[in-house]
Design goal:
Largest sheet of chain A: 3 strands, antiparallel
Number of domains of chain B: 1
Number of strands of chain A: 3
Oligomer: heterodimer
Largest interface: A-B, 25 and 21 residues
Number of helices of chain A: 13
CATH class of chain B: Mainly Alpha
Radius of gyration of chain B: 18 Å
Distance between the termini of chain A: 60 Å
Helix content of chain B: over 70%
Helix content of chain A: over 70%
Number of strands of chain B: 0
Strand content of chain B: under 5%
Structural class of chain B: mainly alpha
Shape of chain A: globular
Number of helices of chain B: 2
């Protein structure tokens, strides 16, 4: 949690925007970077361990869920996960049929992978910003960015993959026609070849670039706002017992994550007991208020509500961005398959 | 420091302005289109959401950069 002065707020934000980097430092040799500056000194031969781990883990999760659903697929009435997976597959199938007009067996599975994978990566944005980084900090991992799509390396890497597919299918389907498209397109005259080539190359390169940056920018802005809400409401945490709760009295400016976790579990268990009918609603509200006053006071409640509100809006953004990435990939590949 | 904040304000304001005009045109045309041919509604809606996402992207990237300028760059410059 951040303190009151802007310097430590800045530190908090920068800490949240720093990846866990593993690489070869010119002085310290191979190892994890301690801070952004050391990571920058590592240069090109460094890897963002957190982005890689989360994105690959989510990719495996996606494969596992969809594979287990596919193995259980029947002609009967589907249920549970199977139903959900069928819904997504149908949706993607419809979207691909609408915008892809060539014949290629790879495009629909590619679209499904892109959509679900990006959606899962974006979904990590909806987890509380401090939850996993703080827990990992207890385990000794200092930097952690859990949303892989807020890392431009990941989004531009995916866009690069799409770009390579575009080039591959353009050359495979059109052959020399692809070169003609690049050199003869807006002005069909040999004297205009350099101008045509320049314009078409810029247009071609802009596609993967905008594809990757759009996703990155959206997720980065979303993450930034979550972090800002967190700093805004934690900044007043030292204000007193009502505002800051008990933790400010015990821990001072820096609160341990386990304290929040204990309060969170207490509030959840009280609400759970209420749902089961063990305690009355009045008592539930009272107990929750007491726990929250102890834990973070009204600022935490306000911050929680704002986080929740932004998260609700963000559900739309993360789905829309995953959908747009998928549709644009299909459209670009469709353009690569159009032979005149 | 003040210039950084003014830069962020211009970024946010002009981004919001452009996106608002774009969204207004998009939504207006979508309703016009569905009023003329209601059976095209679902097809147009999918396309509208796609374009809404495309329009949304630029100002939201601007918001991200502006927030970074206000909360990270401005304090370190003005210190």
């Amino acid at each position: 949690m951040a303190g009151e002065n802007p310097a430590s707020t800045t530190e908090y934000i920068q800490h949240h925007l720093t990846n866990l980097v593993y690489g070869n430092h010119p002085e310290n040799g191979w190892g994890f970077a301690h801070g952004a500056q050391e990571a920058a000194e590592m240069g090109f031969m460094a890897i963002h361990v957190d982005s890689m781990a989360w994105s690959i883990g989510l990719g495996i999760l996606f494969c596992w869920i969809f594979r287990s659903a596919a193995k259980r697929a029947t002609t009967g009435v589907p249920s549970g996960v199977l139903n959900f997976v069928e819904l997504i597959v149908d949706f993607i199938d419809g979207a691909v049929k609408d915008s892809f007009h060539g014949s290629n067996k790879m495009v629909a599975p590619l679209a499904l992978t892109i959509f679900v994978w990006i959606f899962l990566m974006n979904f990590m944005d909806l987890l509380p910003v401090d939850l996993i980084p703080e827990l990992l900090m207890l385990a000794g991992v200092n930097y952690q960015k859990i949303v892989p799509s807020t890392d431009p390396n990941i989004t531009l890497g995916m866009a690069l993959g799409v770009f390579i597919l575009m080039l591959y299918y353009s050359i495979k389907i059109k052959g020399a026609g692809f070169i003609a498209e690049l050199t003869m397109h807006p002005f069909n005259h040999w004297g205009f070849i350099p101008i045509n080539l320049f314009m078409e190359t810029v247009g071609l390169l802009a596609k993967p670039f905008s594809l990757g940056l759009r996703l990155f920018g959206n997720m980065y802005a979303g993450e930034m706002i979550f972090i800002l809400i967190a700093t805004m409401f934690a900044a007043g945490a030292g204000a007193g017992l009502v505002g800051g709760g008990l933790h400010a009295q015990i821990f001072g400016e820096h609160t341990s994550a386990w304290f929040w976790l204990v309060i969170f579990i207490l509030v959840c268990s009280v609400c759970g007991l209420n749902l089961k009918g063990k305690i009355s609603t009045g008592k539930t509200v009272l107990l929750c208020m007491v726990f929250m006053a102890l834990g973070g006071g009204l600022t935490a409640l306000g911050g929680g509500l704002m986080q929740w509100g932004w998260a609700v809006f963000h559900i739309l953004v993360i789905t829309l961005q995953a959908f747009i990435f998928m549709v644009l990939t299909v459209v670009y590949l469709s353009m690569a398959h159009e032979d005149h | 420091m003040e210039l950084v904040i003014i830069a962020a304000a211009i970024m946010l304001g002009l981004g919001a302005l452009g996106a608002a005009v774009g969204m207004g045109l998009l939504g207006g045309k979508f309703i016009e289109g569905t009023a003329r041919q209601p059976e095209l509604g679902p097809m147009l809606q999918g396309k509208m959401f796609l374009l809404a996402g495309l329009i949304d992207a630029v100002p939201i990237i601007g918001v991200g950069i502006a927030m970074y300028l206000i909360f990270v760059v401005a304090p370190s410059v003005g210190a």
